[in-house]
Amino acid sequence: GAPEDYGDDRLFVYLRLAGDDDAEQEAKVATLERAGQPVVRIVLDDLHDLGGEFFRWEFATAAAGSIIGINPFDQPDVEASKIKTRELTTAYAQTGKLPPETPFFSGDGVELFADPRNEAALKPQASSLTAALKAHLGRAGAGDYVALLAYIARDAAHIEALQSIRRKIRDTKKVATCLGFGPRFLHSTGQAYKGGPNSGVVLQITCADASDLPVPGQK
């Protein structure tokens, strides 16, 4: 993105292979540097140096986790969520149904759900789908981040559509943005979302499956 698309809470890392020149990318990185954005340049001599980069960024993850208050060596909040999920699936096996949920908005082929606190904040403004999403995303301020977490098929069309949404949020709000497909993100950034600082504005996108698949050993 252009320098004006970002806030002042970003660090850019430009990782490239020696001899693998990309004039367009180089120009974009140089533009960020001239605008005063912090840029770290890392040039690898050959592809085997990627192993060292894994090592470097494992340390970086631990350091960053410590600074922002996330346990980088455990996932207690993700585990707590798994326990709650097992409680739901156990109850479903016994009763054949899940607890009822009521959307606070329904329209344009979309239903919106939230926990009671967020529903109380958003429902009065949810005169339309656009208004509801604007109210929700409008809560992201400087230093916050917006996460799009999609429980839908991970295919090229969905990735393109969600990346377009993510970039529009980034360019408009100037905040850090994340995009992940569930449940795979739980194994990478899940603890940050669930147990990190209360600075995330999260939008989970789900859909009704066209067909249910049987789970071996389960009803």
Q: Strand content of the residues, in percent?
A: 15-25%
Mean pLDDT: 93
Separate helix tally: 7
Task: Indicate the percent of residues in helices.
Answer: 40-55%
User: What radius of gyration results from the CA coordinates?
Assistant: 21 Å
Q: What's the arrangement of strands in the largest beta sheet? A: 6-5-7
Low-confidence stretches: none
What is the CA–CA distance across the termini? 48 Å
Main sheet record: 3 strands, parallel
Secondary structure: number of strands: 7
Helix-strand category:
alpha/beta
**Element order: H for helix, E for strand:** EHEHHEEHHEHEHE
Question: Which descriptor suits the 3D outline?
Answer: globular
What key attributes describe this structure?
single chain, 219 residues, alpha/beta, 3-stranded parallel sheet, two-stranded parallel sheet, 7 helices, 42% helix, 17% strand, globular
Structure description:
The chain has 219 residues and is α/β, with parallel strands linked by helices. Helices cover 42% and strands 17% of the residues. It is built from 7 helices and 7 strands. A 3-stranded parallel sheet has the order 6-5-7, covered by helices on one side. Strands 1-2 form a two-stranded parallel ribbon. The longest helix has 20 residues, at 76-95. The termini are far apart.
Topology (elements, then pairings):
Blueprint: E1 12-17, H1 23-34, E2 39-44, H2 50-68, H3 76-95, E3 105-107, E4 110-112, H4 116-122, H5 129-137, E5 145-151, H6 156-173, E6 176-181, H7 190-195, E7 200-206
Parallel strand pairs: 1-2, 5-6, 5-7
Antiparallel strand pairs: 3-4
